[in-house]
Amino acid sequence: MAKTLRTSGDYTVKAGAGYDSGSGSNTIRLDARYVRIPGDLTVDGTQTVVNSETLTIEDQFIETNRNNSTAGTEDSGIFFNQGSSNHALFYYDAGNGEFQLGTTTQDASANSITDITLGHLKVATTPTDSNHAASKDYVDTEIAASAGGMTSFDIVGDDSTGASVTDGQDIKFTSDANLTAVIVGGSTHTITYSLTNNLTDIHSITNSSTNADLTLSANSNGSVVINDILTFSGPASTPSADTVTKLYNKTPAGGGTGLYFINSQVSATEGELISKKKATALAIALG
């Protein structure tokens, strides 16, 4: 039959020695189909184990790390027991200020997570809001659609000049320590960026194209100025005559300088610049 026990004050049930420190060996068992506690329930032990198969909680929010009083320095989250495998874990990483999920060799007794293998998060294939996480399938599809629908786009410099890139063309970037060029669409277009500062500490300028010229050009009426010694390294072979003057060095001959020139408008054969000493000797000889 039903029985009610009433008390006007606190009611304590003690089970064995050591109950005050939680070290008692006796058990208090409520053996009934249903146990209902209409008031608040506080458990002061170090562990609470719920063996029920289904846990239903009416609260809208669940708080973990309840007694934390520090400002954003403690990790907290939920462990998922995976048997003999590493635990699954979803938690807030206080040190990095971010949520992480994955697997860990640690367990729920840890004070902070120091070992985690990040896992995968599956989301809806198609996001419906700009702030939704996107799946890989969605991103791949969008990129493929954008690339497939692209006909061309332009790369434009700050002087408004540029080049158009169309489907199937490549954008290639080449550079060295001092100059940078953007080559667009293979050899179809080239954008060159000019330096606004003088080049310094340059020890060599080389043209790697076979038999190609290396041209030094001054702007407008300016001149190419050499402030120091101009050295010709190694005897050159006689170049073909052209309508421009070509200057080169060879073994000295009658002119005594070894510095030769050739210009088809002067002669089809080369001439050697004459030294002051040779010129003086010729002047004396010719009277």
Overview in brief:
With 287 residues, the protein is mainly β. Helix content is 8%, strand content 21%. The chain contains two helices and twelve strands, in the order E-E-E-E-H-E-E-E-E-E-E-E-E-H.
Give structural notes:
- This protein is mainly beta.
- The protein has a domain at 246-285.
- The protein is 8% helix and 21% strand.
- The protein has helices spanning 136-149, 276-285; strands at residues 76-80, 87-93, 98-104, 117-118, 152-156, 162-166, 171-175, 180-184, 189-193, 246-249, 259-263, 267-272.
- The chain is rod-shaped.
- The mean pLDDT is 83.
Straight-line N-to-C gap: 155 Å
What about the largest sheet? Answer: 4 strands, antiparallel
Number of strands: 12
Order of helices and strands: EEEEHEEEEEEEEH
Q: What is the SS-derived class?
A: mainly beta
Helicity range: under 10%
Outline type: rod-shaped
Strand content: 15-25%
Spans where pLDDT lies below 50 across 5 or more residues? none
Rg: 44 Å
Average pLDDT across residues? 83
What are the main properties of this structure?
four-stranded antiparallel sheet; 21% strand; three-stranded antiparallel sheet; mainly beta; 287 residues
Break the fold down into its secondary structure elements and pairings.
Elements: E1 76-80, E2 87-93, E3 98-104, E4 117-118, H1 136-149, E5 152-156, E6 162-166, E7 171-175, E8 180-184, E9 189-193, E10 246-249, E11 259-263, E12 267-272, H2 276-285
Antiparallel strand pairs: 1-2, 2-3, 3-4, 5-6, 7-8, 8-9, 10-11, 11-12
